[in-house]
Amino acid sequence: MLQKHHVEEYMIIQKPYLAHGFSLQELSSKTGINVPTLSALINREYRMNFNDFINQHRVLYFKELLLNEDYHRWTLEALAYKAGFNSRTTFIRAFTKFACCSPSQYLKKLKYN
Rounded to whole angstroms, how far apart are CA atoms 78 and 112? Predict the structure, then answer.
């Protein structure tokens, strides 16, 4: 349980998922938790693999950006890149998985609320 807290704290404070290509090995190095233990922790505690774990954080960050008026003129692709995504396809796939709608559908919901 202490390891989970350590990982969560690191993710919230450092936002390593914003770095393109951030890896399990890097998270291991930064948290001091060896790779097999860290992988098992993510699988067990979050019920997802490392890529989904990172992409979920990126999607949440993307949603935060949409709430900031400074980013309203940015394209969805530019915001996705800022959130750490390398490709449009990966972004759309991850967003749809974790937000249960496409990015454009989500944006429309925001505009009408």
Answer: 22
Could you report the per-residue pLDDT of 82-101, keeping only the tens digit for each? 999 999 999 999 999 999 99
Structural contact between residues 59 and 102, judged by C-beta atoms closer than 8 angstroms = no
Question: DSSP state, 101?
Answer: S
Q: What residue numbers bound the domain in which 79 lies?
A: 2-112
pLDDT digits (tens, 9 = 90+) for 36-73: 999 999 999 999 999 999 999 999 999 999 999 899 89
What the block records as the tokens of 113 is 């609320």
Domain of 82, CATH number, reads 1.10.10.60
Residues 6+ apart with CB under 8 A from 71: 65, 79, 82
Cα-Cα-Cα-Cα dihedral of 66, 67, 71, 72, to 10°? 80
The closest alpha carbon to 47, from 102, 87, 97, belongs to: 97
Number of domains, the chain: 1
**Alpha-helical segments (H) within 15-113:** 24-31, 35-46, 50-67, 76-82, 88-99, 103-112
